[in-house]
Amino acid sequence: MPRALWTGASGMSAQQTNVDLIANNIANVNTVGFKRQRSDFQDLFYDIVQAPGARATNAGQNSAGTQLGLGVKLNGTPRIFTEGNLEVTEVQTDLAIEGDGFFEVTLPDGGSAYTRAGNFRVDADGSLVTPDGLYLNPRITIPDGTTSIVVSPTGEVTVTAGNTQSVVGTINLTRFRNPAGLISLGRNLFQETDASGTAQTGAPAQNGFGALRQGALEKANVEVVTELVGLIVAQRAYETNSKSVRTADEMMRTANELVR
Predict the structure, then answer these.
(1) Which of 30, 44, 156, 243 lies in disulfide reach of 152, CB 3.0 to 4.6 Å?
(2) What residues does each domain of the chain span?
(3) Which whole number is the average pLDDT over 100-121?
(4) HSE (CB half, 13 Å, CA atoms) of 35?
């Protein structure tokens, strides 16, 4: 009987984590460049009462055996890197990636981080930075007196100051063999890990990298209806597991009352 209690409790714990993940997805439905996560579960080890193939009698073998599962656990929370919808903003420093790739930014300690959020701004020094002030890498500096900024699909940045046009730099993109292996830093940033593979840098719209679209932002790839359905399913699964715990408890109470 205690096995049923712990098995049901493991299901409740797993579904609670699932609800936490869905809540985070819904909370970030309007976060630029956010990528939703899903819960992956796996069954726990089994109590092998009788192994399959064990000889039951002199006449033959037990074809299936007796295996009692001991619950469920969370196996991972992979991030889904499907492309989100694009929202046209007409802001010259807003950039969206149509396809594969990340923007690379420089962290305060000199390390690199990666993001799909292209809501860049021009700081007091003329550099393109994230809302947190992190420099786009390679660094792009917009000269004083600039009246127009044009970013081509291939990443070339052209500015107009007065009657003069000049190219001030090129934006590169970075991609990974396994983007789900990136570690989340918050603030729409990811960092390379052994699981993600080494960063591969290239020009936009070439060799499989996505193209840049100026004046647009990539929205979160969260479908609210899908998340709400998942929330209902998780709630029902939680309730069902709680009922199995309650049933096991009632059966134990009934067994205890037999000796009175």
Answers:
(1) 156
(2) 2-52+66-80+222-257, 86-218
(3) 97
(4) 22
